[in-house]
Amino acid sequence: MSVTVARFGPEHVGAFHALHATAGWCFCVAWWVETWEGWGTRIHKENRALRDRLTAEGTFDGYLAFVDGKPAGWCQTLPRDRLIKVRTQFGLAPDNATWAIGCFFIHPDQRRQGIARALLRGVLDDLPARGARRVEAYPKRTAEADAGDLWNGPETLLRDFGFAVVKDDPIRPVLARAL
Questions:
Q1: Are 27 and 6 in contact (CB under 8 A)?
Q2: Rounded CA gap, 117 and 67, in Å?
Q3: What's the pLDDT at 24?
Q4: CA gap 33, 102 in Å, rounded
Q5: How far apart are CA 95 and CA 79, in angstroms?
Q6: Are strands 98-106 and 134-137 parallel, antiparallel or unpaired?
Q7: Domain containing residue 147: CATH number
């Protein structure tokens, strides 16, 4: 199995949509909406329209993993201060050098094969060239986490890559790593 990681760009919009069509309705826009109020009642078309608007405006906020040339995974990664909801929810001061890992999505048929690990490695290797000096993540802690609970990435994976808790919370801590 050959995994390659590519920065999301205009040439990958079709691959992004093909991958996210398997996820149902989110299209990785959860952090782009102003509040969680009403999030659970949003429909596929609303989220797809927001994603289409973001890419039309030139917002390519992540990385894609490809397995043997097919889209297999996604990691939303961008300057944290662009996501006002992240700063508000976690009470974080502005910081232009900090980037956020907003979510991970691995195609259901590709899970537990090391794709998230390869994807995170690729992201962390590329971020310094983009001006990032620090990166944060916001995993969810649950007693019995399923794939739906891990959309921010598993805390154990992040810790394996040197992330440490900088703001503890029993449900959703803030983890960070210097680059």
A1: no
A2: 13
A3: 67
A4: 13
A5: 9
A6: parallel
A7: 3.40.630.30
| Dist. CA 40–CA 3, nearest whole Å | 33
Sequence-distant (≥ 6) Cβ neighbours of residue 88 within 8 angstroms: none
Six-digit token pair at 42?
A: 């949003």
Alpha-carbon gap, residue 25 to 51, rounded angstroms: 11
In 10 A of CB 47, how many CB atoms? 21
Q: Residue 72 and residue 23: Cα distance in Å, rounded?
A: 12
Domain region containing 65: 3-178
pLDDT tens digit string along 88-147?
999 999 999 999 999 999 998 888 999 999 999 999 999 999 999 999 999 988 766 565
- Structure tokens that stand for 112 in this block: 């537990």
> What average pLDDT does range 16-38 have in this prediction?
88
Structural domains in the chain (count): 1
